[in-house]
């Protein structure tokens, strides 16, 4: 379903650390994009009519969405961005219909500038928040031009101590902001500590479709569910079981897993160390 592009993981990791985001082209085939959009058509058709849709735990809604969590090129990259003891954190489908008049909706047709995270927020050290989770955004509609509900980011803002935009209104341009533009099948990747916003879709005739697949350490509570459902786990191979958080009945092992509990370690290119704990 994916292309055969080989990613230069070390260079991409370095770029990600510096800029706070990656934009990768043509990571999904045209056929895969069509399959996903067919699933989205069905999912949206099951929801009440709205200008904007935010659908969480979307991996439960269609197998084509679930298939993205272990994308053969992007998963090894994610392992080297965040570590090999990771899980699926969130699968958030967003659809924004054209809203040129800025009609207020209950379903967040746009989102002002923010960092992702809990309330209260993640702790800071020296004015900086670490990357606790990272999201891959799959672009599934034509967002090759600005003002189609594109995600806005401030590159490098994850490295600025105690940074906060001079104002958080997404409708007011900020110095240094960037609208992520891409075609169906492109992806962009960013951590929760990068300042970003969901801009309004002001473009008649263009619908925003973006699917956010996020990952976090396996010791963190996921957003999608308390535990993966039997339906998600059915037929899952060891890698997908790890991503779905099903590694052990021993809760302690989520902090110090045995090597065979984290098969994603095969993709890791960094240093490793053994735990001092034995249970």
UniProtKB/TrEMBL annotation:
<keyword id="KW-0560">Oxidoreductase</keyword>
<dbReference type="InterPro" id="IPR008775">
    <property type="entry name" value="Phytyl_CoA_dOase-like"/>
</dbReference>
<dbReference type="Pfam" id="PF05721">
    <property type="entry name" value="PhyH"/>
</dbReference>
<dbReference type="GO" id="GO:0016706">
    <property type="term" value="F:2-oxoglutarate-dependent dioxygenase activity"/>
</dbReference>
<dbReference type="GO" id="GO:0005506">
    <property type="term" value="F:iron ion binding"/>
</dbReference>
<protein>
    <submittedName>
        <fullName>Phytanoyl-CoA dioxygenase</fullName>
    </submittedName>
</protein>
<keyword id="KW-0223">Dioxygenase</keyword>
């Amino acid at each position: 379903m994916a292309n055969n592009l080989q990613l230069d993981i070390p260079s991409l990791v370095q770029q990600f650390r510096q800029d706070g985001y990656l934009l990768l082209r043509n990571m999904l085939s045209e056929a895969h994009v069509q399959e996903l959009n067919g699933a989205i058509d069905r999912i949206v058709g099951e929801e009440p009519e709205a200008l904007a849709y935010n659908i969480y735990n979307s991996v439960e809604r269609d197998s084509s969405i679930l298939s993205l969590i272990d994308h053969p090129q992007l998963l090894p990259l994610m392992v080297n961005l965040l570590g090999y003891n990771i899980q699926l954190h969130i699968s958030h489908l967003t659809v924004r219909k054209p809203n040129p008049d800025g009609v207020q909706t209950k379903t967040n047709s746009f989102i002002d500038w923010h960092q992702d995270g809990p309330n209260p927020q993640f702790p800071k050290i020296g004015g900086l928040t670490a990357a606790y989770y990272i999201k891959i955004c799959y672009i599934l509609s034509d967002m090759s031009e600005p003002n189609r509900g594109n995600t806005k980011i401030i590159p490098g803002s994850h490295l600025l101590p105690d940074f906060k935009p001079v104002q958080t209104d997404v409708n007011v341009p900020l110095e240094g902001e960037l609208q992520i533009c891409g075609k169906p099948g492109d992806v962009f990747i960013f951590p929760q500590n990068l300042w970003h916003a969901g801009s309004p879709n002001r473009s008649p005739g263009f619908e925003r479709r973006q699917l956010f697949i996020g990952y976090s350490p396996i010791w963190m509570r996921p957003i999608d569910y308390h535990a993966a459902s039997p339906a998600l786990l059915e037929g899952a191979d060891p890698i997908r079981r790890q991503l779905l958080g099903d590694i052990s009945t021993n809760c302690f092992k989520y902090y110090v897993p045995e090597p065979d509990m984290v098969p994603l370690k095969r993709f890791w290119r960094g240093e490793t160390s053994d735990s001092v704990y034995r249970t």
